[in-house]
Specification:
2 domains, 13 strands, 357 residues, 13 helices, alpha/beta, Rossmann fold
């Protein structure tokens, strides 16, 4: 009997949740005496992420949810399973589950009805099956206890790091490709999820037309699908708004390094990794004062009212035009972000695992 990690994330596109799973796994394995101490159980369609993986031997033809619900618990029947991406086998005993947020309860309008019903059912079953629930912030811990009726002693916080950016090689060619100049643009990062508040940020750009040659680069979204109605909102089709779409980690690091700021006016976050990543790369950050963001960003960010287009625009204007303010937040962000290390997160999780033996 030992521990094993649910490696379903190795078959998925790396976004925030999968990033946490990968970096935590990598950091914990680096602390183990041998890879056999903490194997990663993966489906047959997993990508080689450089982790010490132990492939499943039962139901190898299964992938996705079927693999997670059938093959994985059979393979991990003698182990305590650690699932780091919100879900895991619904009927697995000896199970640690990381839940990143309670968005399906707090902001259900951001998802399809089917998705909300399925995840609420999952959480209702997993709350009784999981011996320990892990999460990423005090905010999420409080929401989990509230919605799932779980005693707070069962919900433990493991805060993600940002120092994975040290391993990313900057790709400055993206600046030339997009015709960008240092401090003459801001970066917007996020999906098309309404919680990311992209509509208001785009509307705010319309109030900044007097900032000549200043651009707004949107990484991670494509214009054609910005709004559910299929219609572009204010600012979406401006020639100063650059829809970069998917960018590599190296390109994103280069964008952060020369930007006037990151604008992250999200309405709901269980943690909010992009602001920390940006700070770690020396990028001043504007974030909303919603959900977990004040907890994560502390005094190092400039805060905006996520519901006010005028306030979002005003904060961007300050960062775009006042070099002393940019430098102040650049220094504060660097100091703040370097407190968040994956080795520290791994140490915390390993302590939790040791106490559970």
């Amino acid at each position: 009997m030992g521990f094993a990690i649910n490696g379903k994330f190795a078959s998925q596109r790396i976004t925030g949740v999968q990033r946490v799973a990968y970096e935590l796994t990598r950091a914990m394995q680096s602390r183990a005496a041998s890879p056999a101490e903490l194997p990663v159980l993966v489906p047959s369609n997993a990508t080689d992420l450089g982790l010490a993986a132990r492939p499943t031997h039962i139901g190898r033809g299964l992938t996705g949810n079927l693999w997670e619900q059938i093959s994985l618990p059979l393979e991990a029947r003698r182990d305590t399973l650690i699932s780091l991406c919100n879900t895991g086998p619904l009927f697995k005993r000896r199970h640690m589950l990381m839940i990143h947020d309670m968005a399906v309860y707090d902001v259900p309008h951001g998802f399809s009805r089917k998705f909300v019903m399925w995840y609420r059912l999952r959480f209702s079953l997993l709350r009784s099956q999981a011996n320990t629930i892990l999460t990423v912030s005090g905010f999420s811990r409080n929401r989990i206890c509230h919605h799932l009726g779980v005693d707070e002693s069962r919900v433990l916080v493991v805060r993600p790091g940002a120092d994975h950016m040290d391993r990313v090689t900057s790709e400055p060619s993206i600046l030339e490709k997009l015709a960008l100049s240092k401090d003459k643009y801001c970066v917007l990062v996020g999906s098309l999820d309404p919680r990311k508040n992209l509509r208001r940020v785009l509307a705010a750009t319309e109030l900044l037309k007097d900032l000549k040659d200043f651009k707004f680069v949107i990484a991670g979204a494509a214009n054609a699908r910005v709004f559910a109605s299929g219609e572009s909102g204010p600012g979406a089709d401006s020639d100063r708004v650059i829809w970069a779409g998917f960018v590599t980690d190296g390109e994103l690091k280069a964008l952060y390094g020369s930007a006037a700021c990151l604008v992250f006016a999200s309405l709901y976050e269980g943690y909010g990794l992009p602001p920390l990543e940006a700070m770690y790369c020396g990028c001043p950050v504007i974030v909303s004062s919603e959900a977990s963001l004040p907890e994560v960003c502390g005094d190092a960010a400039m805060y905006c009212d996520a519901g006010s287009i005028d306030d979002i625009a005003a904060k961007i204007r300050v960062m775009a035009t006042q070099e002393d303010v940019r430098m102040k937040h650049r220094r504060a962000g660097l100091e703040h972000a370097r407190q968040f290390k994956w080795d520290g997160a791994a140490t915390r999780l390993l302590e939790i695992m040791q106490a559970a033996r």
